[in-house]
Design goal:
The complex is a heterodimer of chains A (about 230) and B (about 100). Chain A is mostly helical and about 230 residues long. Chain A contains 10 helices and 2 strands; from the N terminus they run ααββαααααααα. In chain A, a hairpin with a 5-residue loop joins strand 1 and strand 2. In chain A, helix 1 packs across helix 5, helix 3 packs across helix 5 and helix 7 packs across helix 8. The two termini of chain A are about 30 Å apart. By secondary structure, chain B is mainly alpha-helical. Chain B is built from 3 helices and no strands. Classes of the chains: A mainly alpha (about 230), B mainly alpha (about 100). The interface between A and B is large, with 68 and 57 residues.
């Protein structure tokens, strides 16, 4: 999903920076607040950040015949919400822009918007939508036993859709910047490159996210509960 | 639950390896396994667009690039394993007390 350095006209770079930066700033404020209120959340934050680092470095072959990479943004989105995930994604994206020449400083705002904001937001909405109407006690008993419970299924769908939506947003960003011949056709062209290969990668990402999620829920149940993740 | 996670890992590995079977004997020359990011960049360049800014620093070779990717994965895996190990040992210690 990385838009390479210099691959967006300067005004689009500026546009995405203007949208993304306030959310990252809000995320930093929220981050400080969470660490202040629940110091135990620090290690959870490190795990979700590390998870994003790990997953976004793995380039996997796709059933569609190309290679792409997972995003690792669903877990953070569900546990901490989109704003804090945007902060974590910013760290990952700066690392990749400076050391790996993947993505770039000019396109950082656009890449934060897709991987750091919309992906986690989608995961958060999907997860909350599924888990909310369940009685809390049910969720908690099941996740402790690590059954195939609603929180696990919700996390799978959340991570899967976070991955896909990240790439849909990237396709959209490129389509409106390069509407050749039209925005719609350009959007479809980029979707074919980005979103279709992600279907198989997204399933992989969903499965791996569920494994780490269930282990987190088992070990750090109380902290997650205090962060209101189960309802 | 351990077993379930092992099955999930195997499932993920299977899905990731299906393309190798589907497109066996096909490689980069035939247009397979190319990075989606690069493909998209090509489409953009075909519209006649010239990037107005280049990466400040680029890995001098594919080997160095793979080194840095491995480094990124290692940092992530180290953090996850360190913290899970810490929690595990802590809960064991607490039980003994």
């Amino acid at each position: 999903m990385h838009i390479m350095e210099g691959f967006l006209p300067w005004y689009w770079c500026l546009f995405w920076y203007i949208i993304s930066l306030p959310i990252v700033a809000y995320g930093i404020i929220k981050l400080k607040k969470i660490i202040g209120d629940t110091p135990e959340a620090k290690s959870l934050l490190a795990v979700t950040g590390g998870f994003m680092f790990l997953l976004s470095s793995l380039k996997l072959p796709s059933v569609a015949g190309s290679s792409s990479h997972p995003t690792g943004n669903g877990l953070g989105g569900v546990i901490f919400g989109p704003a804090i995930s945007a902060v974590l994604a910013t760290i990952v994206l700066i690392f990749q822009a400076l050391l790996l020449a993947h993505g770039g400083i000019t396109t950082l705002g656009a890449n934060i918007f897709s991987m750091g904001i919309i992906g986690p937001l989608v995961a958060w909405i999907v997860y909350k939508g599924i888990v909310r109407n369940n009685t809390n006690t049910n969720n908690e008993v099941n996740i402790k036993k690590s059954n195939f419970s609603k929180p696990s299924i919700a996390m799978f769908l959340g991570a899967f859709l976070a991955n896909i939506s990240t790439y849909i947003v990237t396709s959209f960003q490129l389509a409106i910047a390069f509407p050749e011949p039209t925005v719609e056709l350009s959007f479809i062209k980029f979707l074919l490159i980005f979103a279709i290969p992600q279907v198989s990668l997204g399933i992989c990402e969903g499965l791996i996210t569920v494994i780490i999620w269930e282990n987190l829920a088992k070990v750090k149940f109380d902290v997650l509960k205090r962060l209101n993740v189960f309802n | 639950m351990r077993n379930k996670h092992i099955i999930l890992v195997i499932l993920a590995i299977l899905i990731a390896t299906v393309p190798f079977v589907l497109y066996s004997n096909l490689g980069e020359e035939e247009g397979y396994f190319i990075g989606a990011d690069n493909k998209a960049s090509e489409v953009v360049e075909n519209t006649g667009y010239i990037p107005w800014f280049n990466s400040i620093w680029e890995a001098p070779s594919a080997e160095i690039e793979s080194l840095l990717f491995a480094l990124q994965a290692a940092i992530g895996a180290f953090i996850i394993a360190y913290i899970f190990g810490y929690w595990h040992a802590k809960s064991k210690y607490n039980k003994k007390q």
